[in-house]
Amino acid sequence: MMEKRTLKVRTVIISDVHLGTHDCKAAEVNHFLKYTRCEKLILNGDIIDGWRLKQASYWPKAHTRFIRLVLKKLEKRNTEVIYLRGNHDDVLSKFLPMAFENLHLVEDHVHESASGKRYLVLHGDVFDTITKNFVFLAYLGDWGYRALMRLNRLYNRWRSWRGKEYYSLSKAVKARVKRAVSHVSHFEEHIAELAKSRGCTGVMCGHIHTAADRMMGDVHYLNSGDWVESLTAIVEHYDGRFELIDFAGFRREYPMDDENTDAAETLEPVEPSPPVNLTA
Fold it and tell me: Which fold has domain 9-267?
């Protein structure tokens, strides 16, 4: 049987999947992984949401399928997998670094592109003072974000009933709140400075759920976004060129087939989840 058409790239970078939460878009990220082939897969933090799993047990089949797709890339595709600790899976920090053949669990990573440029890869929560120093406020922010996501689901059910497209309230709020915009700006500046201090010409991160691909001075700044709202990833082509992939565009090129039953699970009216730390 002929293999289905896939996107073949050198490197795939995703972050902030938040498995174990109701707002994880598991069907979409699974489809993306299924239709991509790469030499290296970088899972840049908050892939599993340990914060939420401590509070409630939620793990549907689609979340297990994500793990299986990653293992398939390891075992059958000979893909190197780099898993970086995030703040929601920070329990891993006690055991890092670890390596199992092609699987590496690390705090940060330096990626050399096909063009020979060095990119510092890290989740990015190291620059979030709330996450690091004010745990109570971080959990309070988590609660607020989950409440907003619950409202977001109800609002989009109404929009769907009216025949309108999905609209992210959370992204709209972040775009309009001056303090949130300022926090994102400072975060990006600090990340770029760190990359330069480590002798790198670029940086890849996640954490703030805001996808980006741009130059900040002489530093190439990449943020892979998330699989809760943005549904974005970064890919490196074989010529060393990086591209920000949006799932809506990816889905047009590689349609979701009828056999994909995960999609229904992402629309369940259940508890929301992953936090975005917007205060600095």
Answer: Purple Acid Phosphatase; chain A, domain 2 (3.60.21)
What pTM was estimated for this model as a whole? 0.79
Q: What is the largest CA-CA distance in the chain?
A: 55
* Interstrand relation of 98-100 and 40-44 (parallel, antiparallel or unpaired): unpaired
Count of helices and strands (H, E) across the chain: 8, 14
Q: Is 280 helix (H, G, I), strand (E, B) or coil?
A: coil
Q: How far apart are CA 59 and CA 138, in angstroms?
A: 23
Residue spans of beta strands (DSSP E) within 115-211: 118-121, 202-205
pLDDT tens readout for residues 123-157: 988 765 444 544 444 455 555 666 666 677 777 77
Cβ-proximal residues to 132 (8 Å cutoff; 6+ apart), any chain: 125, 126
CA atoms within 13 A on the CB side of 96: 16
Tokens for 169?
């309230």
Strands 242-246 and 232-236: antiparallel
* Strands 109-112, 242-246: pairing kind: unpaired
Q: Which amino acid is at 83?
A: Y
Q: Could you give the count of Cα atoms lying within 13 Å of 105 in the half-sphere of its Cβ? A: 16
Whole-number pLDDT of residue 125: 82
